C-alpha cells in the first residue's frame, strides 16, 4: 500500500539560514521509516528522517515545539540544543588539518589523500615529522626491502609521532608477492646498467659482495623457462635486457635500455612481443614469506595490508578471514594491488571482496601495452568509487624527483589527471623511500592536488558518473539515500561542512563516495577507524567519545571545535549519523 505524504522543506523569509518543515497532511509509518509530524509550520534548522523497525504511530500532540528525535525516542527542546559541554582537549584531530582549517578555512582544505613509502631517505623521526607536516596521511612500509626489525622501528616512530605531535598517520604494510624478483644486489642500494653492457642473471646463491654485473633471481626455474631472444623487463620496464646466451643456471643478457637497478625489483620476460606469464600464473599470490610478514603486520597492528599481484577474489577473502581470526577486533583493512593481467580479468570481484584497491601502474605497465595503462587506471578508479572502495593511484608519479628537485611537466600533468579522476589517494614510492628530495616531492603532490580541487570547485563542475546502489539491506538503503541526499544538499546550499557521526566508518565512506564540494568531518569513537578513514577522499577524521543522543553530540562537537577555532558561529553545517538515520541542517550558534 502506498501513501502520499505532503512534507517539504522550504526557505523561510525570516532568515536565510532558517528552514521550515511543513506538517504532513498524512502521517505514514511503513515499519522502517517514520516521519515526525508537527502541528504547524515552525522555524527550525533541522530536518529529521528516522529509520526504525517499529511500526507504531506517534502522537503528534506530543510535539508542540521543535524537537530533535534521538535513537532512544527521547525528544529535547530546541532551545537548549546548543548548550556547551566538554572541553577542547577531549577531541582528537590531526595537527595539520587543524592548522589548515584555522589558516585557510573550510574550502581550502585538501581532499585527496597522500601516501609516502618509507625508506632510507625518510625513516628518521625528524624526516617522518617533516613528511607529516607536509601532509602525509599514510606511511607505507614495503616488505620487499629491509628487515622486520627495521620495519618495526619505522612503525614505532610513526606511532610516537602521532602520540607526541598530534598527527593521525596510518600505516600500510605492502607484501612482496610471489612474482619473479631480482635479489638484493649484494647489499648495494642500487646499480646502474649502461647500454651495451653484458649482465649475468643467475639462480645461484652468492655471499656478498656479488661478482661484477651479476643479478640473482628468486625463481629457481628461471634459466629453464627463459629463451635466447627474450626481453627481460626490470621494474616495469625501467631497464631492459635481451637474452643472448644460457649456460647452466646462468643467463647472459645484453642491456638494451639503460637505467637504475634497485634491489628486489620485479622482473618479467617477453617473447615475440607478448608477456610470458605461464609460470607467474602458477605461483601463489601470497608466498610463505608473505604469510610471515602478514603475521608481523597483525602483531604490530598496522592499519592496512596491501596484497601484491592479486589474481582472484578468493585470495582476498582467505586473507580477510585469516586476519579476522588473529587480529585484535579484526580491524586491518585489505588493499588489493591491481598490477597484472589476472587482476584486470577479475577486477570487479576482486574490488568487491577487498577494502580498497591500488592502481600499481609500474608493474601493470609491464604486463599490458603502455598505451592501455591510462584507460585501465580510469576504469579502476571509477569502479572503486561505484563500489565504495577507496582507490590509490601509485607508481612513477614523480619518478624524476628521485634525482632532481623539480618534476617534469608531464609528471605534473599525470598527477593532475589522477586528481581530476577523483582517486582517493596518491602514493609516492621511490621518490620518498630513496629519493634525494622526499619532502619536495610530497609538496608537489599536495600543491597540485589543492590547485586542481580548487579549480574544480570554482567552476562548480558536477560529475556525470552514475553511482549505483550498493546496499545489501533496507537499512543500508536508507543510509545510502541519506548520504546521497546530504551530499546533494551540501552542494546546492553551499554549506561549509558535512558532519558525520559513525562508529564503523560506513556512512563516512558513503559521503566520501559522493565527492561533495565541502569537507567531511567524520567523528568516530575508535582510534583504528579514525586512522583508516584517513585514506578516503575528503574525510577529516576526528576521534570523539559521543552518545546515542544526537543533540548531546552536536552540543559537544560545536563547543569543542569552536574552542579550538576550527568552526565559528554562523557556519552552515549538515549533520548525518549512523545512530539516528537523519539529515540535519543548521547554523553553528
TrEMBL record:
GO terms for molecular function: ATP binding; kinase activity; magnesium ion binding; potassium ion binding; pyruvate kinase activity. Its main location: plastid. Residues 63-85 have a biased composition (Low complexity). Residues 55-85 are annotated as: Disordered. It is found in: Plastid, Chloroplast. It catalyses: pyruvate + ATP = phosphoenolpyruvate + ADP + H(+). Residues 480-579 form the Pyruvate kinase C-terminal domain. Its cofactor is K(+); Mg(2+). Its EC number is 2.7.1.40. Gene3D superfamilies: Phosphoenolpyruvate-binding domains, PK beta-barrel domain-like, Pyruvate kinase, C-terminal domain. Pathway: Carbohydrate degradation; glycolysis; pyruvate from D-glyceraldehyde 3-phosphate: step 5/5. Keywords: ATP-binding, Chloroplast, Glycolysis, Kinase, Magnesium, Metal-binding, Nucleotide-binding, Plastid, Potassium, Pyruvate, Transferase, Transit peptide. One of its GO terms (cellular component) is chloroplast stroma. Residues 110-441 form the Pyruvate kinase barrel domain. It comes from the Eukaryota. The keyword rRNA-binding does not apply. InterPro entries: Pyr_Knase, Pyrv/PenolPyrv_kinase-like_dom, Pyrv_kinase-like_dom_sf, Pyrv_Knase-like_insert_dom_sf, Pyrv_Knase_AS, Pyrv_Knase_brl, Pyrv_Knase_C, Pyrv_Knase_C_sf. Transmembrane segments: none annotated. It is an enzyme of class 2 (transferase). Belongs to the pyruvate kinase family. This is Pyruvate kinase. It comes from Capsicum baccatum. The lineage of its organism: Eukaryota, Viridiplantae, Streptophyta, Embryophyta, Tracheophyta.
